[in-house]
Design goal:
Radius of gyration of chain B: 30 Å
Helix content of chain A: 40-55%
Structural class of chain B: alpha+beta
Helix content of chain B: 55-70%
Shape of chain B: elongated
Largest sheet of chain A: 10 strands, mixed
Number of domains of chain B: 2
Number of strands of chain B: 13
Shape of chain A: elongated
Oligomer: heterodimer
Order of helices and strands of chain A: HHEHEEHEEEEEHEHEHHHEEHH
Largest sheet of chain B: 11 strands, mixed
Distance between the termini of chain B: 27 Å
Largest interface: A-B, 60 and 54 residues
Number of strands of chain A: 12
Strand content of chain B: 15-25%
Number of helices of chain B: 15
Chain lengths: 390, 391
């Protein structure tokens, strides 16, 4: 027969201070664990959600990122003529090429701190190729002018990036912000989009592009497209599915954050487990008379062990719930950091998922099991007579 | 028998709990030291940056190079002792595709003069100056790649495509902590005269310029002088001291640093919870005894002293243990691993002695904090109530 669970729950209430201290400790651990997982997830979502399996990006072989890449305009036309590229009504290829550069802008609200912002010089087709990019305020930029649109992730974070404001791309070459765009939370939202020729002129890029992006007939058409591009060794190009490309870009940063979070969570858990253990040993010692009585009443050793283990798990789960709920609050926080692959500052959010929140709370419960096991064994080993004697 | 001894002896009464608490405190201290070391590893570049160097780059973007003649002009500016240009090359070793290392094209003599903390043995230095395809590499990189002086290596350029042949002329070490010991440096002329550079229209350009100045206190003034000189040209510049440059780099990852900072304080809070819980339990169990002590003439402050003394003994023991664990772990294990494998990101991952002092001071202080409430409760006990309680 098992000991009624209400016995344990009431015991926790009797020892309020100790219960609160221990649960709070575990709660903090769960909070930190859950937050770092949410941030890692946020980084992956931000960087990978740029990528569509239905699009391919082409950069110069060996250049790793768009920034280091350079492709001549006649080569861009060859890419657009490749098989597998989707065509519009008039037979024109659905694709575009961008020039990508990084500029240092003054951070708003700081004293002369500068940070790197990715500037993408685009052609009118850029919005057709990436339909997920939508103007949410203002209007699209006029092609061939010094008008730009900014992603909502960096809007107002740098001087001159507010709607209607302007900043210098080059001395005496101001560009004016006429629109704000969103793209489903992807890292494009941390970019400034300007006219391709404006960027080429300001940054001395001649007539070359950094990358070419094409829409494919279907995700399955990629292999044919890639084979065609790779086949011409003279071109020295490297095609990639867009999602694969962005996955690679996010690797360093997200692995770094997740690894750091995991190491921290490990040490924290050990600390919290020790805390739970101390509390449960205390509970067993304090209630040895009660345990003796329970045993005398006929409850088995196993029942006593389970009972204390249950108490520990309840204690830890209360903490876990507190931490899990508190970590949901982090979704309101924007976190901006540098992407190691592009040196560009990107703003991320903490993305919760049921798996992360539940998983973290369960991790709290597991700390309860591990921390409560030895004390529960100690309780079950008490001899009834000795224990009742005190 | 003095009061301190009584406090310490009390710890022996529940050995298991005392040991667990010490373990808990030491885990917290190890975590604290580790996180502080992560923080200092990132900021070490700024703290140890030379104060007498000024870096100059393109005003708009670090990816736009400057005309090479700017270098000669900067050398003429009063207060500048010497200057060197450098170009980011960006190379991969096809045999170690995933290993990242920094590679620069520099004028060997000028560069070693400006960066005098980079030490190359004299004969290797001479050999490098003479060999146009020669390169010097950091000792950490040489070890990782298995390169020896005299080896021929072929790298693949990421910015300038193609295979590039080099011969390792020397291996450098560094006398300053902020120097990345995993860089690869070779002759500017070798790069500048190549077809790849001509194709990219980047002949006679330098990525950035570093100058050595004679008076560190004038760094800001000289930076302004340099920028003013090029202000009316096609390419404007942005100059700042090496220290300011590193600080602005750190600014970009400041959110991560702040998070680590906060987390390192959270672990201390968890430690206070664990410790406070233990102390409170001890006080509760000994209520009867405290009543007896009060009855035989001990004052409330004595009881409080017992409680605080006990807590501080545990926390200091945990702190010392934590330091003893983390020191060899970081210095011999983790730190060495990171420096050899991720030198480009953290060239110096070692515990700052100040961190150790802080950890011990905080352990002591937090022991007292954790004991404050239980000690206050113990000191307020009424003799009669306490004696009546037997729990």
């Amino acid at each position: 027969m098992l000991i009624p669970l209400s016995y344990n729950v009431r015991s926790l209430f009797v020892r309020k201070t100790t219960t609160i201290a221990t649960a709070l400790g575990i709660g903090l651990v769960v909070f930190v664990l859950s937050s770092s997982l949410m941030l890692g997830q946020g980084i992956r979502n931000t960087l990978v959600s740029n990528g569509s399996t239905n699009r391919a990006i082409v950069i110069r072989k060996g250049s790793d990122t768009e920034m280091a890449s350079g492709i001549d305009s006649n080569v861009v036309s060859l890419i657009m003529a490749a098989p597998g590229v989707k065509r519009g009504n008039e037979g024109q290829a659905l694709g575009t090429s961008d020039v990508v550069v990084v500029a240092s802008l003054d951070k708003e609200g700081t004293d002369g701190m500068i940070s790197n912002v990715l500037i993408r010089g685009v052609q009118p087709a850029a919005l057709l190729v990436r339909p997920e990019v939508r103007i949410v305020e203002g209007r699209p930029a006029q092609p061939g002018t010094d008008e730009v649109i900014v992603g909502q992730g960096i809007r107002g974070r740098f001087k001159g990036t507010e709607l209607g404001a302007s900043f210098d791309l080059k001395k005496n070459r101001p560009v004016k912000v006429v629109g704000v765009f969103e793209s489903g939370g992807s890292s494009l939202e941390s970019e400034v989009w300007a006219d391709i020729d404006t960027v080429r002129n300001s940054f001395g890029r001649g007539s070359s592009s950094s990358s070419a992006t094409v829409v494919l007939d279907s995700p399955g058409a990629y292999d044919g497209f890639a084979a065609y591009i790779e086949n011409d060794k003279q071109l020295g190009l490297e095609p990639m599915r867009e999602n694969v490309y962005y996955d690679k870009q996010s690797e360093g940063t997200s692995v770094f954050i997740t690894a750091l979070g995991a190491i921290i969570a490990f040490f924290f858990s050990v600390g919290a487990m020790i805390g739970a253990m101390i509390t449960m040993y205390g509970a067993v010692a304090q209630r040895s008379k009660e345990v003796g009585t329970l045993r005398a009443l006929g409850f088995s050793r196993g029942a006593v062990l389970l009972s204390f283990l249950f108490e520990s798990v309840v204690l830890a789960t209360i903490g876990g719930l507190l931490g899990g709920i508190a970590s949901m609050g982090m979704t309101a926080v924007k976190f901006s950091t540098m992407n190691f692959a592009t040196w560009q500052e990107i703003s991320f959010s903490f993305d919760p998922s049921p798996a992360i929140i539940l998983g973290s709370i369960v991790a709290g419960g597991v700390m309860g099991v591990l921390g409560g096991f030895f004390p529960a064994v100690a309780a079950s080993r008490l001899s009834p007579i000795e224990a009742m004697r005190g | 028998m003095n009061m301190g001894v009584v406090a310490v002896r009390n710890l022996g009464r529940n050995k298991l709990r005392t040991l667990l608490t010490i373990a808990g405190v030491s885990v917290a201290i190890v975590t604290f030291i580790l996180l502080r070391t992560v923080l200092s590893a990132w900021t070490v570049a700024a703290d140890h940056a030379a104060k007498d160097r000024v870096g100059t780059r393109h005003k708009v973007s670090f990816i736009i190079p400057l005309p090479k003649r700017y270098l000669e002009e900067i050398k003429q500016i009063p207060g500048v002792k010497g200057a060197a240009g450098a170009n980011w090359f960006g190379a991969k070793d096809p045999k170690h595709e995933t290993e990242f290392f920094g590679s620069f094209a520099v004028d060997p003599e000028e560069y070693l003069e400006v960066y005098d903390e980079i030490i190359v043995p004299p004969e290797q230095r001479e050999a490098w100056f003479q060999n146009r395809t020669g390169a010097v590499v950091g000792d950490a990189l040489a070890k990782k790649m298995g390169w020896k002086v005299g080896d021929r290596v072929t790298l693949v350029g990421t910015i300038y495509p193609g295979d590039w042949e080099f011969q390792i002329s020397g291996i450098y070490t560094a006398v300053r902590k902020s120097v990345d010991r995993s860089s690869f440096m070779f002759h500017y002329d070798y790069l500048n005269d190549s077809q790849a550079v001509a194709n990219a229209n980047s002949k006679d350009l330098v990525g950035w310029i570093v100058s050595r100045i004679d008076d560190p206190s004038r760094a800001a003034e000289i930076s302004r002088t340099i920028d003013a000189r090029f202000d009316e040209r096609d390419q404007q510049t942005l100059s700042m001291s090496e220290r300011a440059m590193n600080t602005s780099f750190i600014g970009m990852i400041s959110a991560i640093l702040k998070a680590v900072d906060v987390v390192s304080l959270v672990i201390l809070f968890i430690m206070v919870l664990i410790l406070g819980n233990t102390v409170a339990m001890g006080v509760r169990e000994r209520t009867h005894e405290y009543g007896v002590l009060r009855a035989i003439g001990f004052l409330p402050k004595h009881l409080a002293a017992f409680v605080v003394g006990e807590a501080m003994t545990v926390s200091v023991a945990g702190g010392v243990l934590g330091v003893m664990i983390s020191y060899p772990f970081v210095q011999e294990g983790l730190g060495r691993f990171l420096e050899e494998n991720m030198g480009a990101f953290c060239p110096f991952f070692r515990i700052d002695p100040a961190t150790i002092v802080w950890a011990l001071l905080l352990a002591m202080l937090l022991g007292a904090v954790a004991a404050a409430l239980p000690a206050y409760n113990a000191s307020r006990l009424k003799v009669i109530d306490a004696l009546r309680r037997t729990g």
